[in-house]
Amino acid sequence: MKNHNLIFKRTLLAALVAVGSVQLAACEAEGDPAEAGGISGGGTSSGGASSSGGSSGGVPNDGSTPTTVTEGGTAINGNFICTASAKAYGPSPVTSVSANGLVGAAVTPLLALLGGNTLTQLLNSVKDQSLAVDGNLDTAATYSLTLGLLGGLISSVDFAIQPNSSVPAGKYAVFALSFPTATLELSLLQNIEINTFLNDTEQESASTDASTLDLLGQVSLTDPYRFVGMKVTKPYNKVTVTLNPQLLSVNVGDAMRVHELCTDGKFVAAP
């Protein structure tokens, strides 16, 4: 009789463990993929639903978005699909903004030459920074350039993202970007530069002249989109995306949106 009771208890315990495992797996399947470093949003070729943070829609992540990605300086054929964000290397990536490559105390003398309001303009030059590392292609951080920045000594605005661990060689440093049409018509953009670093030592860079992106020729119901960056041949734990604007005597407002840093992905044939 004792043996029968022992067998029954063991069978019941095994069944409860199995049920618990199924429930846990179901909960994990229903979770937000962005929290584990995956990508959400951007599921349709016409862009995602409108969202907060200045984005007019999500960057399409179905292989239809035009792509400028290099490996060792050579362009990779096809269109990029983003499969992992900076959160794949830690839950809370750090973001920061700098000018002319200067950060912290080093930027103070430069700002002093540009007037009292420029510090505020610099800090606000990239709005909603956290939206570039939330794993969601429907949201975006936004470069907002004003007269004080364009007309002074600041020639570039750098937006840096630091994952919590190193991204290994063979992965990607690719940004999902969109561009307000009004900015393009003003021919504001000179180039977009992406640089990777390992412990503040520069690893690799990719520079794209905006005129080569053919953004005005892109057929889109919303603002033009682009995947821009590189497949890295060296590990990195910081990456910057730098906007080098031409000096204009106008307030241009929103100039470029950074929807996400993609740390991994795949290529498909362009449609």
UniProtKB/TrEMBL annotation:
Instruction: Give the signal sequence positions.
Output: 1-25
Segments of this protein annotated with the region Disordered: 36-70
Point to the regions of Gly residues compositional bias: 38-57
Q: What keywords were assigned to this record?
A: Signal
Q: Which domain of life is it from?
A: Bacteria
Per its record, how is this protein called by name?
DUF4382 domain-containing protein
Originating species: Stagnimonas aquatica
